[in-house]
Write a structure and sequence with these properties.
Elements (H helix, E strand, L loop, with lengths): L1 E7 L4 E8 L4 E5 L6 H9 L3 E6 L11 H8 L2 E5 L13 E3 L4 E4 L2 E7 L8 E7 L8 E5 L2 E2 L2 E2 L4 H6 L4 H17 L7 E4 L17 E2 H7 L3 H5 L3 H9 L8 H11 L15 H9 L4 E4 L3 H6 L1 E2 L3 E2 L6 H8 L9 E4 L3 H12 L6 E5 L7 E2 L3 E2 L1 H4 L6 E4 L3 H6 L6 E2 L18 E4 L4 H12 L4 E4 L2 H15 L1
Parallel strand pairs: 3-4, 4-5, 5-6, 10-13, 15-17, 15-18, 18-19, 21-25, 22-23, 22-24, 24-25
Antiparallel strand pairs: 1-2, 2-3, 7-8, 8-9, 9-10, 11-12, 13-14, 16-20
Helix pairs in contact: 4-7, 11-12, 11-15
């Protein structure tokens, strides 16, 4: 049996290709939309992808299952469990608890594990050429290394009302019904790692085991004591902010993401063509340079989405393709970087591109407005905006600051004043440049706090030392 993991550090998301080496057949589970990695892996191992499935209706990225099914002529399977309130809206084979997909000598059994979402499935993998019993569990967003999936995303992202409490109860019952019955040795491969917003304390290791999680994960003692109330309270407490774009991902993944086809390379535009397109408002410039470079000077109206780091996440904060219909023009150092940025952005449904450029020649560069921590205290009637996550805000913030995370601030823009100066900050400045450039493009004259929160803390230390 072949099991290959594909990990996207940007979204902290894992997908898998499982293949039978005897028959050369393979299945992809929880795949993304840019599919060349799966094509290359299958070709490298002499396999053909004959099936594709996913664990649930994802909220944090756009599923590539339909893309893979069309590209390879593979059979598409999705969950048919979970009731009628949240079901897939496109044609596919429906899986229910206990159903089995056979890929050569490999058996892939679906188990219904509601909690993170009502329709959630996990997949028990049996390598029939080696054993008669399962040895692996692809756990999706059910169980992570050190954590379980958050049960509040239908409330946070899909317009649900108090579904989080039932979801937490369902998670406890799923753990008891499925996880308690599995032997300790089964290896667990989750769909996310550290940095994902699908849980609050995900580990960074790529896999774990059933026995290790039962013994050492925070939820183990609650399960052992059959303490549902304690489990629910602990699970719901302190979950991270859900990004605003999660609602769009949920809808599109439920209804069926648009099919991309062959992405191909982006077209390089000349400086004259690029300036003309941007000045005519026929394209939106995406500045992928470092935050420091953008602060030093970037074309007016451009968006800052650094090419290194959380490109897909930051892109989804700054661009809502349901509202922004102009194609994107990517500033990158070369063709490879431009195509890589595009590949990351299509993972969150940002699909329209005018091409790329490698220089800002011909553009007028505008530096980002900044105010020092010392000068901040001299401003009258200022609105201080903290775009960090709420747990960071609770741990400490600039006095009087209002917390709206960078992943939600464009959706909640009505909460920002139009008649007061706004000064924004994050922890070190990376998230802040994404948020402030997007807010400026939306028409708000936002100023950055120089050095962000770390700079402000340093200024306070300097003041104390001076006293």
């Amino acid at each position: 049996m072949l099991l290959e993991r594909f990990y996207d550090d940007d979204l902290a998301q894992a997908s898998y290709l499982i293949g039978c080496q005897a028959t050369g057949e393979a299945i992809v589970i929880d795949g993304r939309r840019d599919i060349e990695a799966y094509r290359s892996a299958a070709a490298r191992n002499g396999m053909r992808i004959v099936a594709v499935t996913e664990t649930h209706i994802h909220a944090d990225y756009l599923s590539g299952s339909r893309e893979i099914a069309r590209a390879f002529g593979a059979t598409l399977y999705v969950s048919g469990d979970g009731g009628q309130d949240w079901q897939y809206g496109f044609d596919a084979e429906r899986l229910h608890d206990g159903d089995v997909i056979a890929i050569g000598n490999i058996r892939i059994q679906a188990r219904h594990t509601p909690g993170h979402t009502p329709e959630h499935l996990v997949f028990l993998i049996t390598d029939g050429a080696f054993a008669d019993d399962p040895g692996y569990l692809l756990s999706g967003d059910f169980v992570f290394a050190g954590d379980v999936g958050r049960p509040d995303l239908l409330d946070e992202a899909a317009g649900g009302v108090d579904t989080r409490f039932q979801g937490a109860l369902d998670m406890f019952d799923s753990l008891r019904r499925v996880f308690l019955e599995l032997p300790d040795h089964i290896q667990v491969y989750p769909a996310h790692g550290a940095g994902s917003a699908c849980g609050k304390s995900l580990g960074a290791i790529p896999s774990t085991t059933v026995g290790y999680e039962r013994r050492y994960a925070w939820w183990g003692p609650y399960l052992a004591a059959d303490d549902r109330d304690g489990f629910v309270q602990q699970l719901l407490d302190g979950q991270p902010d859900a990004h605003a774009y999660f609602a769009r991902m949920k809808r599109e993944n439920r209804d069926g993401p648009a099919l991309l086809g062959d992405l191909g390379p982006l077209t390089e535009l000349s400086s004259i063509e690029a300036v003309a397109a941007v000045e005519a408002d026929a394209a939106v410039l995406i500045d992928t340079r470092t935050p420091a470079a953008v602060r030093a000077g970037s074309p007016s109206g451009s968006l800052a989405i650094p090419a290194s780091g959380k490109t897909a996440t930051w892109g989804a904060w700054a661009i809502d393709p349901e509202q922004e219909h102009r194609p994107l023009l990517i500033l990158a150092t070369n063709q490879e970087e431009a195509d890589t940025v595009r590949d990351h952005l299509v993972r969150v449904g940002i699909d329209r591109y005018a091409g790329f450029i490698t220089t800002l020649d011909g553009f007028t560069l505008v530096p980002s407005a900044q105010v020092s921590p010392d000068d901040l205290t001299e401003l009258d009637d200022v609105f201080v905006l903290d775009v960090r996550n709420r747990n960071e805000y609770v741990d400490g913030h600039v006095p009087g600051a209002v917390n709206i995370s960078a992943g939600r601030v464009l959706r909640d823009i009505a909460e920002l004043p139009s008649d007061r100066p706004i000064v924004a900050y994050c922890q070190s400045g990376a998230r802040n440049i994404v948020a402030t450039q997007a807010l400026r493009r939306a028409g708000l004259p936002v100023t950055e706090l120089s050095g962000s929160y770390l700079g402000w803390l340093q200024s306070q230390d300097t003041e104390r030392q001076a006293v």
